[in-house]
Structures are given as C-alpha cells and as structure tokens.
Amino acid sequence: MKIKSVLVGMLPVIGFVIIWESIAQLKLVPKYIFPSFSAVMIEFYHLAVSGVLLDNLLSSLFRVLAGFLLGSTAGIVVGIGMGSKESVNKSFHPIFSLLYPIPALGWAPLLMVWIGINDLLPVALIFLCSFFPVLYNTITGIKSVDREVIKAARTLGASDGKILTTVILPLAIPNIFTGLRLEAGMAWRVVIAAEMVAIPTGIGALMIRSESLLRMDVIIVCLMVLSVMCLASERFFQFAEKRFTNGWR
Amino acid sequence: MPTIELRNISNYVFSNLNMKVFDGELLVFLGPNGAGKTTLLNIIAGLVDYKGTVLFDGVPVDKKPTNERQIGYLFQNLALFPHLDVASNVGYSLRIRGKKKEEIAQEVDELLKLMRIEHLKQRYPKNLSGGEKQRVALARALATSPRVLLLDEPFNSLDNGMCKCLRREIRQIQRKMGITTVFVTHNLADAEEMGDRIVVLNEGKIKQVTSKMFNDAMDNGNRAQRFQDCLHCTVDCYCKRSKSKEGDYESVDSPACRM
Predict the structure, then answer these.
(1) Structurally, how many domains does chain A consist of?
(2) How many helices (H) and strands (E) does chain A have?
(3) Mutating which of B83, B99, B153 best tests the A interface, going by the most A Cβ atoms within 10 A?
C-alpha cells in the first residue's frame, strides 16, 4: 500500500522529467538557455565529483545552521518569557509588532553597513528571519495551553517552574515545531538571496556566478539542491515533532 | 483530615460567607449555574482572590499558595494532561515531589487498582471514555494524599448508569479514606446520594442547609417526597422534577427549576 502511494506520487515527477527532456531534445531553444534533464544530471555529477557542489553546500549549510539555531533559540526563550509572563509580553509586544512585518531581506542594506560583507551577514539575516516566527509561534503555543490543566498541575503541588517545564512547554511543542518547520525552509531561501548579493561562497554565490557565465545547467543543479535541502529541513522538523508528540496528539 | 472553615469570605460572588466542613465529612454545595459553587472550591484551593479567611484545622491557609495547600481537586472538565499517559497522569504529583521511580510505580499501581483502571495504564486521555477519564482524574487527585478533596460537578458529562456507579464508588473511597470533601453540583440526585450535608447555594448566598441524618430520619417514602419536606421553599422548584424513573431528577439548571 505504501509502495503504491509512493509510486503514485512519483508519476507526476517522472512525467515532468520526460516532458522536460523531450522539449530540450527538440532543440527549439539553445541548450545553454534550456538544458536537457540529462545534461543537468551530468553537470550534477561533475559538480559533485569535483567537490565544488559540496564546498558551496557546506558553506550555505553552516550559515543556515548558525543563523537558524541562534534565531530559533532566541525566539523560543523570549517567546517563553512573553507567553508566560504578561508583564514581559506587554513590554516587548509593541516593539516586536513593529519589527515583525519587515521582511528579513529588507534588513540586508542596513546590515551590510553595520556588520560588513562577510559570513556574519547571512547568519544575521537568517537570525532575523527565524526569530520572529518562532517567537510568535512559541507565544501562541504557550497561551493556547488550557488554563484548567495549569490549575490542575498547581493543585497537584507543582510550582510555577515545574508547571512550565512539565505542562506548558510540552503542550506548546506542536506550535513551536510549526514555527521551526516553516522557518527551516525559509532560512534556506534567505541564505541563497544573501549569498547572491553579498557573499562569494555558498549555493547562492555559485548560482549568481553561473548566471554570468550562462550556465543554466549549474543553476538548475543549485535549484535542485536548494529544493532538496528545504524539503529535508521541513521533514526533519516534522519527524522531530512527531517523535515529541507521538501518542497524545 | 482537617476541618475546613470559611470565615467572612467575600469576593466578586460572595459577601461575608461563613461555612464549616467537618472532619471527614462530605459536604455538597447544590445550586444552579452562577451560584458560586466553582468559585467556592477555587477559594478553598487558593486559585482565586478573596477577602476573609480559610482555615484548615483552625490554621489560616490564605497565605499558602495552591501547591502547598495539600488538596485534591477534581475539575469539572477533568483537566487531564493530554501529553501524559494514564500512569504518568496519576503519578504526576509524586514525580514532581521527587519520589523514586519504584515508589511512584507502586503507588500508581495501587491507585489504578483502587479505581479499577489498571488495564488503562499506558493509554492517553484522548483514548479514554468519559467514565474512564473520571476515574483517572480521581486517582490523580488522590495521589497527592490530599487533606481536602474538592469535586467540581464531576458527573456532568456522564450517562445515568455511569453516574450512579461512580457516585457509589467515590462515596465508598471517601468514607474509606476519611477525606474531608467538598462536592459541588447542580444535580439533586448527586447531592442526595453523596452528601452528609447539603448546602443550597444561589447567587453567592447560602439558602438552606440540610443534613443526611435528618433525611435518613424521614420515612422511607420516595426520595422526591423526602426532599420536598426537608428543603426550604427556596428550592421548591426541585419538586417539579421529572419522576419518570425513580432516582432521575431534572437538573436545577432546567427552566422549571430556576431558584
């Protein structure tokens, strides 16, 4: 049954590849503009074997991990404070409400001047991109915990700290993971954009270099890698969420 | 087990309320929605603000936070922890007190046995029936070895048969353990079967107090007649209850029974 459903899901992908390859083989468009699927796969092989792809991927991965880890950790910590203490929420809510709507890439010109064009720039942008959504999802998760359940824990002898760690946070986990899952994919999009405009290494930089050389095959390889990384990040958090909430949701 | 005394309790519902629950007694507060029943339990538990004094065995507990009052509270919606299985729900209070795993397991097993739900140990609340949830919540409340047990309309969502069964079981357990218990309900049948004394509460005021001893002294006529005689005119509406089946009563929240 599972194999059958996987096969059904693969059919459109296979169909898409066949159509792509057929159109490219018709040679209606020059191959440097529209390379065939097979040419892209051959280029993928070359990039992988030469280590170019791995080097750039690792550069991007490091920035994503650093920015995302810092941003989401800060988002969870501040979110816990704002979600559980009304005074903290009242203090920070106005400033965060003003900053949240600004797209992460909107900060790029300012950060280029403030921290320079170096590895810290994409890390800072990913930090901003991850921080706010994780923050708001954490606050929502904490605030949506049933008040009666908290009261019950209190009557059972739990202190505020115990209630937070044994009741509120475990019950807020689904919301927190929703934020992490969505922003894990977004972090990859932001790192690519930052590398395109400012950094000489990483998948984004490889793409922009390939564009100037009219190497569409390399660009498509990079897009494929980006797609796989976004999907893998989201799936990782989906899996982690299931592990944490298995049985009770 | 302590005597509970409420002295000059005032808040947004009550104005100078005075009441005493005796050691080992099961006192029922009976009244319609909005009478202040749950608020009264929350005052005893320290979950809401109030003026006045709550005393356990003559000692004021007003300054004590809820988690230090040693109470067992069965909430109206039961408030089981959805992320914990039955054994973990019941053992929650023992775990946060830092008891050893073996001790927790042993005490949990005893409580599950007492409530006859040993077979549900590994289940999560979402996979339990209403009656099973009720038993788990009661076992969890008893796990704290409470000095005072507070029961907030625990039979609301249950069918008649399950209600009767649980009423009997809770009564037996309460008598066996001798825990001073406050039970609030809007259901006359619950009040009659459970209470040593019944306090009729409406709009934050005590309207009537009647005791089991008085009821039991009455003839063995039907229960509806007995209550008609012993309760004050403020609860006359109860007598308009349905008598389709013996022991079935309309809730005091029904339009015919508004006080």
Answers:
(1) 1
(2) 11, 0
(3) B83
- Structure confidence by residue, pLDDT tens digits, B124-176: 999 999 889 989 999 999 998 898 999 998 887 777 777 888 888 888 888 88
Instruction: Give me the domain span that covers residue A69.
Output: 37-245
Q: Do B85 and A247 touch (CB under 8 A)?
A: yes
Give CA–CA dist B80/B83, Å, rounded.
Answer: 9
pLDDT at B224: 46
Residue type, B159: D
Please list the residues that pair with B187 across neighbouring strands: B251
- What tens digit of pLDDT does each residue of A228-238 get? 999 999 999 98
Query: How far is the CA of B233 from the CAs of B83, B103, B227, B255, in angstroms?
Result: 48, 52, 11, 17
Count other Cβ atoms within 10 Å, centred on residue B106: 13
Give the total residue count for chain A. Answer: 249
Q: What is the ipTM of this complex?
A: 0.80
Cα atoms in the Cβ-side hemisphere of radius 13 Å centred on A247: 13
Is there a contact between B55 and B62 (Cβ–Cβ < 8 Å)? no
Q: State how far the Cα of B144 lies from the Cα of B179, in Å rounded to an integer.
A: 12
**Residue pair B45/B71 in contact by the 8 Å Cβ criterion:** yes
Interface of A with B (CB under 8 A): 146, 148-149, 151-159, 162, 166-167, 170-171, 245, 247-248
pLDDT score of A19 more than 90: yes
Verdict on whether the full-model pTM lies above 0.90: no
Q: Quickly count: other Cβ atoms within 10 Å of residue A243's Cβ.
A: 8
Place of tokens 């000059």: B8
Residue A79 within any structural domain of the chain: yes
Q: Taking CB atoms and an 8 Å limit, are B47 and A154 in contact across chains?
A: yes
Give me the amino acid identity at B182: V
Burial code (b: 16+ CB inside 10 Å, e: under 16) for A174-203 equals bbbbbbbbbbbbbbbbbbbbbbbbbbebbb
* Helix/strand/coil for B52: strand
Closest residue on chain B to A170 (Cα):
B83
Q: What SS3 class is residue B154?
A: coil
Highest mean pLDDT: which range of B28-37, B218-227, B230-239: B28-37
Q: How many CB atoms lie within 10 A of CB B62?
A: 13
Residue A1, pLDDT > 90, answer no
- Tell me the C-alpha distance between B165 and A45, whole Å: 72
